[in-house]
C-alpha cells in the first residue's frame, strides 16, 4: 500500500483550527480499501515560532519538508507581527524555495450556497484562475531611500522573465485544454504597464499557436472584474500575473459565496518539489480560537491535494461529501449565515465518507 508523506503546516489563527480538521478528513479517506495511507508530520511554524526563535520557520525548514509528497498549509498572519514578515518568512519562502510557480484557484458555486451574484447559479460560474506565483509584482525587488524624509522614494518593481511567462502560459493553455470548454482568458494590463505586460501579451500569442484547439481571448484586468460580475459564464480558465490574479481570485471567492470555501494549490508542475495546498483565506483574527472557522476551503484544498497525488477516486468522493454538506444550511458556518461550528462540519463530512 502506498503511504503518502504529508507535511501539515497550520501556521497562525484559524489555520490551527482548519488544518487538523483537514487532516482528520484525509485520514478518513485512507487505509482499508482505499489502497493508500498517509503519514502526517506537523510543523509548528508561524507566529509562535517567530516569538520563540525570531524567524517564521527554521533555517533548514525547506530541507525538512523537501522529501514530502505534498504540503497542507493553513495561514500565515499574526495580529502582533507585521504582515510582510509573516508572509515572506513562511508561505512565500516555501512557494519560492520549491518553485511552485503555478497557483491554481478553482471557483464554483457549491450547492446550497447563496452567492451574491443575481441570477447566477452553479452552472453559470465554473472558473479556474491560474496565478503566476514566482515573479511579477511580488518578486520582492525594490526598496526605500531616504526613509521618513520628504524626498523619500519607495519602489516595488515587477519582474517578468520570458522563461517565467512562457511556463505559466503553457501551464494555463494546457489546463484550459483539459477542461470541457477549452476556453482561456489571458488577463493583461498592457495599456498601462507597457513593458512586462506587453511581453506577456506577445508570449500568450506565441504559446497559443501550440494549442490550436483552445479558444482564447485577452481582457484588461480592470475590465475583467466587471466581466466576472456581469458575464460570469463567458469565463472558464483565466491566467494572470501574481498581483492581478491575487485580486481577481479574492473577488472570485466572494462571488462564489465566501472566502471560507475557496481552495488553492501552489504547484510545481514539473514535480521537482512538493506542491502546497491551502485554503485561500488568511488567519481571520476576528474569529480565531472560537471554533467558528469554515473548514470547507481546507477540505476542497484536500481534494486538490488528492488529485495532485493521482488519487482521483478519493478526490471525487471527498468533493461529493463537501457538496452534500454545503447543500445543508444546518451545516453552514457563520460566514455563510449559519451557526455550525468547525467541528460539526468536519464530523458531518467524515460521517458521509464513512457511510459510503
Ligand atoms: P482573512 O482571510 O484572514 O479574513 C477576511 C474575512 O473573512 C474575515 O472577516 C474572516 O473572519 C473571514 N474568513 C476568512 N476565512 C474564513 C473561514 N474559513 N471561515 C469563516 N470566515 C472566514 O483575511 P485578512 O483579514 O485580510 O488577513 C488576516 C491575516 O491573514 C493577515 O495577517 C494576512 O496577512 C493573513 N493572510 C494570510 C494568507 C495566507 O496565509 N495565504 C492569505 C490571506 C491573508
Ligand atoms: K491560506
Ligand atoms: Mn490574496
UniProtKB/TrEMBL annotation:
GO molecular function: D-malate dehydrogenase (decarboxylating) (NAD+) activity; magnesium ion binding; NAD binding
Protein family membership: Belongs to the isocitrate and isopropylmalate dehydrogenases family.
Catalytic activity line of the entry: (R)-malate + NAD(+) = pyruvate + CO2 + NADH
PROSITE patterns in alphabetical order: IDH_IMDH
Record has Cytoplasm as a keyword: no
Coiled coil: none
Designated name of the protein: D-malate dehydrogenase (decarboxylating)
Obligatory cofactor(s): Mn(2+); Mg(2+)
UniProt source species: Ramlibacter monticola
Amino acid at each position: 500500500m502506498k503511504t503518502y508523506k504529508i507535511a501539515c503546516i497550520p501556521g497562525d489563527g484559524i489555520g490551527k483550527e482548519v488544518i487538523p480538521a483537514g487532516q482528520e478528513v484525509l485520514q478518513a479517506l485512507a487505509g482499508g480499501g482505499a489502497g493508500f495511507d498517509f503519514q502526517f508530520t506537523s510543523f509548528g511554524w508561524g507566529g509562535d515560532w517567530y516569538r520563540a526563535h525570531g524567524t517564521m520557520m527554521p533555517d533548514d525548514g525547506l530541507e525538512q519538508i523537501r522529501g514530502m509528497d505534498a504540503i497542507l498549509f493553513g495561514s500565515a498572519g499574526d495580529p502582533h507581527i507585521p504582515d510582510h514578515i509573516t508572509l515572506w518568512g513562511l508561505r512565500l519562502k516555501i512557494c519560492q524555495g520549491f518553485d511552485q510557480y503555478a497557483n491554481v484557484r478553482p471557483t464554483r458555486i457549491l450547492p446550497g450556497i447563496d452567492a451574491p451574484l443575481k441570477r447566477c447559479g452553479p452552472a453559470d460560474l465554473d472558473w479556474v484562475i491560474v496565478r503566476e506565483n514566482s515573479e511579477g509584482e511580488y518578486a520582492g525587488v525594490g526598496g526605500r531611500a531616504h526613509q521618513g524624509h520628504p524626498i523619500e522614494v519607495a519602489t516595488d518593481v515587477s519582474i517578468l522573465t520570458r522563461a517565467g511567462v512562457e511556463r505559466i502560459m503553457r501551464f494555463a493553455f494546457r489546463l484550459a485544454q483539459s477542461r470541457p470548454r477549452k476556453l482561456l482568458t489571458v488577463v493583461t494590463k498592457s495599456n498601462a504597464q507597457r513593458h512586462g505586460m506587453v511581453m506577456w501579451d506577445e508570449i500568450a500569442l506565441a504559446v497559443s499557436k501550440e494549442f490550436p484547439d483552445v479558444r482564447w481571448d485577452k481582457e484588461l484586468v480592470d475590465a475583467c472584474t466587471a466581466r466576472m460580475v456581469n458575464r460570469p459564464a463567458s469565463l472558464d480558465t483565466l491566467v494572470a500575473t501574481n498581483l492581478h490574479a491575487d485580486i481577481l481570485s479574492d473577488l472570485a471567492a466572494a462571488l462564489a459565496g465566501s472566502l471560507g470555501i475557496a481552495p488553492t494549490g501552489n504547484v510545481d508542475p514539473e514535480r521537482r518539489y512538493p506542491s502546497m495546498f491551502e485554503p485561500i483565506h488568511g488567519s481571520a483574527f476576528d474569529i480565531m480560537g472560537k471554533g467558528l472557522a469554515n473548514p470547507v476551503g481546507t477540505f476542497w484544498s484536500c481534494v486538490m491535494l488528492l488529485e495532485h497525488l493521482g488519487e482521483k477516486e478519493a478526490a471525487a468522493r471527498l468533493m461529493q461529501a463537501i457538496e452534500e454538506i454545503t447543500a445543508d444550511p444546518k451545516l453552514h458556518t457563520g460566514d455563510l449565515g449559519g451557526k455550525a461550528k468547525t467541528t460539526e462540519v468536519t464530523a458531518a463530512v467524515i460521517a458521509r465518507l464513512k457511510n459510503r
